[in-house]
## 1
Amino acid sequence: EVQLVQSGAEVKRAGESLKISCKTSGFDFARYWIGWVRQVPGKGLEWMGIVYPADSDTRYSPSFQGQATISANRSTNTAYLQWSSLKASDTAIYYCARHYPKGSLQNMDVWGTGTTVTVSS
Amino acid sequence: QSALTQPASVSGSLGQSTTMSCTGTSSDVRDYDYVSWYQHLPGKAPKLIIYDVSVRPSGVSNRFSGSKSGNTASLTISGLRTEDEADYYCSIYISNSPPVLFGGGTKLTV
């Protein structure tokens, strides 16, 4: 069974760093793009960016370039989203999702349950 | 702002059908067939219900159907049930930057 299990909720202060995870199982992690999607409270879904674990290729939406860093660890089949200095505006639910089909970005067929990040100013 | 425009809300009665739209520009929805739809229930992970404009993933009810005409993709839900109340997002994959776009979402009330 394909699964994406995300790390738990985080409460941070502005300026702190954070790294959230998305541990996957049940598929060839290295050969699928893994994406991150943000949902600010009361707002819609926003595609942030992706990582291709086979070669760590990463791509970002222009809206999120430089705001956070996406990475992956092939040895643990885990993708990550991290911030070096959080802002109150980073408060949101963050979802990881597997892009499908293999090696492509056509859709996101399996999603993690989401990680709630709350940043106080 | 979303490059894909969805109505903020639609409604329908139990057992009836409803259709929601997703309007893009001539450089995305019209030219690409990688339109997907996601159902997002409160507190849950989004769920893929339609991909490649009109294909249902295994296990998704045949009450959900997708189509496209020109710059507009549509999701139709027939035989509405209370459990269909959710937010619905369209998305498209294009060979551009960013390669994936979401619409603003439509809240369905049954």
## 2
Amino acid sequence: EPEVTQTPSHQVTQMGQEVILRCVPISNHLYFYWYRQILGQKVEFLVSFYNNEISEKSEIFDDQFSVERPDGSNFTLKIRSTKLEDSAMYFCASSGRDRGQPQHFGDGTRLSIL
Amino acid sequence: GIQVEQSPPDLILQEGANSTLRCNFSDSVNNLQWFHQNPWGQLINLFYIPSGTKQNGRLSATTVATERYSLLYISSSQTTDSGVYFCAVLWAPYGNKLVFGAGTILRVKS
């Protein structure tokens, strides 16, 4: 079964540095997402991406964050000038053509800010 | 926004026991998914179930959309069932984001 893949599985970064999290969505999917889970808390939506642009973003997704689909397969989340509170598990997800289809999640990237 | 409430928040079972986890939501939804988060943090997709009943081995789920709730049944529990179970919904009138509940922490003892 096709799956969403994320790299790296764990990223350790100094506060203030930039970090890029990478995702390869399922190949025929059209909607792409990033979610975040701070340790011990529930999963929170960050941003959705469709047709090469952001379709929705949460209050968390401020100017520090950006997303990009640099080629036909990758989907990235960039965090500029990381803060301690950015430490979390970041999940990428993708879904098919129609709204409401199931979202398939990657295994996540655990981001630790020191 | 839509509210998603899961109960119970914590559950401890003896291996072999059965359990029912509940998810209540406050508005109409286009999608409902159940996930199991394992000890490594991975989110495993269990069911896509906006309505009706589905079964997969020892697990089954039922969503009654008109009454705004979903149930996840775990039968003959095993220690590997331990982890956090999340319900997530896609709110019908607005957007594509999944809204997650706070989860049920399940511990199965041998």
